[in-house]
Amino acid sequence: MGRNDNRAGTAQRERDEWQLGVDWARWLLAGNHPQPLTIYGLVLEPGEVAYVNTPAHYARLYRGSGRYTTSGGFIIGHPALVVGALAANAAVNASRKAAAKRNTELMWRDLQEVPTVATNYRILCQLPGRGWLSFYYNSVQEFYPDPANWRITFGFQEAEPLQLAGLASPTLAVLTAWCVLGSDRWHGEPGIQPLLQAAYAPQIDPNAVVGEVVDEERRQLDTGEPPQAR
Questions:
Q1: Worst-scoring range by mean pLDDT, 1-10, 20-29, 39-48, 149-158?
Q2: What is the reported pLDDT for 209?
Q3: Is the pTM of this model over 0.85?
Q4: Which superkingdom, per the lineage (predicted)?
C-alpha cells in the first residue's frame, strides 16, 4: 500500500470516527441514555455500567523530580590523564544537571496508547505495570473536550491532569460531557459544539457512500437503535 493510500485510509477513519461522535450526540440530544456495553475481566462497582471500550493515547501533566547522580571518585595516574578525566567528569555532571533541570519543567509525560473504558462513574486506563487507573467524574474540576483536535483534557482535585487523545476522541468527548456535566448541561459545553451542530443538521442521504461504519451507525439511528459502543 502506498503513502497516498495510507493517507486516504487515515482520512476515512477520521471521518468515520467523527461521524460516530455526531451519532452519539444525536442519540443523547434525543433524550436517550447510552446503552450498556458487556465487558469481561474488568470488575465494575455495584451499579456501574460500561459504555465505551477503546484504545486511547494517554498522558499526564506533571513535573519531574529533578534528581540526578554525579560522576566522580578518586583518579590516580599521570597528571595529564587526571586532568582529562576530571574534565570529562565535569562535562558529564554538567550534562546531568542540565537534564535534571529540564526534568522539573511542567510537561505532558507518560505518553502511550492504552486500553480505555468509559463507564457511568469513571474513566479507566490500563497502564503496563500499573494495572487499571480510575478517574472518577465526581473528582473532575476542569473539563476541556477538544474533539476538533482529537483530544480531551481533565483536571482533578487531587491528581495530575489527564489527557486522552486519538480517533475515539469525538465519542469520548460527547459521552464524558454527558457524564461529567449531567444530562441537563452537557449540550452547553463549548468544546463539543462542532459535533452538536452536525447532530442538529439535517442528515445526509442515507444511500450516500460515506464508509461502512457511518452507514451502520446511521441505520441503527433510523431504526431507533443506539450508536454502537466499541
A1: 1-10
A2: 46
A3: no
A4: Bacteria
DSSP per-residue letters across the chain: --HHHHHHHHHHHHHHHHHHHHHHHHHHHTT--PPPB--SSSPPPTT--EEEEEEEEEEEEE--------------S-HHHHHHHHHHHHHHHHHHHHHHHHHTS-EEEEEEEEEEEEESSEEEEEETTTEEEEEEGGGEEEEEEEGGGTEEEEEESSS--EEEESTTHHHHHHHHHHHHH-TTTGGG-GGGHHHHHHHHSPPPPTTS---HHHHHHHHHHHTTPPPPP-
**Residue 82's pLDDT is what?**
44
The per-residue pLDDT for range 121-174, each reduced to its tens digit, is 999 999 999 999 999 999 999 999 999 999 999 999 889 999 999 999 999 999
The full length of the chain comes to 230
Domain over 13-41+49-64+105-200 is classified CATH 2.60.40.10: no
Every domain of the chain and the residues it spans:
13-41+49-64+105-200
Residue 143 grid cell: 473539563
Locate 152 and state its grid cell: 480531551
How far apart (Å, rounded) are the C-alpha atoms in residues 84 and 188? 66
